[in-house]
Structure formats: structure tokens, C-alpha cells
Design a protein that fits this description.
Blueprint: H1 6-14, H2 18-22, H3 26-39, H4 43-48, E1 50-57, E2 70-72, H5 74-87, E3 101-106, E4 112-121, E5 132-143, E6 146-153
Length: 160
Amino acid sequence: MVWPSAYEYEYEYEYESREAALSRTPRQIFESCVYAGAVTRNADAFAENFTVDGVFEAPLVPVDAAFPRRLVGREEIRGGMAAYYERQAKDLRSPNLEKSQYVLHTTADPDVFIAEIDTVFDGDGDGNAGDVAVSLVQIFRIRDGKIARLRDYFGPELMS
């Protein structure tokens, strides 16, 4: 599946009503989360995708890593991701949405879906490094149109 354009997504995100949030599809939830996090690095928008008591976990990340291993509650998610994005400000690379792909898998539980993601980051432009591809899996548990739990499985060596 191809990612929507940034303009297309911003329009949908900015004008979403409470009723629409309750009936969001897995695709809308996933794209909202990715756009707020990986694309724009907006900790406020990222956190708003979660329930008040939501949990964001990256179980493969070492305890002492810069990337948060576990954040509990929307406000802790907001603060933890803001701190991480601040530390990563020097790395201005965003995913190339034209080259990146994802597949969403629904499950027998209507509140759970899985995202299989192949994200491509463009090379540095100096000929020193080519594109970097990162494959990962995310498991989403949804409640009332928001993320109650997100488990993000990726190689921890990819995050500084």
C-alpha cells in the first residue's frame, strides 16, 4: 500500500471530529501515528493518537537506549517522545514515502491489527551512503478509535 501525500494527510488529521475519531479505520489510525511520529516528529500529535492510559512499547530496545523502551499514559508518551525528537534534531532525514511501503493485517480481534512496514530513508546525497531500508512490525490495540497499546518491533541498532 502506498502512503498518502503529506497534504492529503494533514487535511484529514486537522479536521477530524470526535465522532470520526471513534470510527477511524486501522489505516487511518496507522497513518496518523506514522505521520505524527516518523514524518513530522510532532510529539503532541503523536501522543493524541493514544488513549489517556495508552502504552507505547519498543520491547527490543535496550533499557539504556535513547529511544524510549516503554511509555505509559498519553502525557508520558508526549514527554518521552518530545525528549527523543529533541535529541534527534540533528538527524533531519524523514522517511521517503514514495519508496516506503506497508501492509496492514487485521486479526480475529477487531481491536487489534498488525502493520508490516518497509521504510526507506534516502541516502545522504553526498554519494557516501545509499538509501537505507528499515523493516519493522507494529502491533496495535485500539479502544474508542485511539491506540490503547502499540508495540513497535524493530532492530534497536537502528535508533541512536
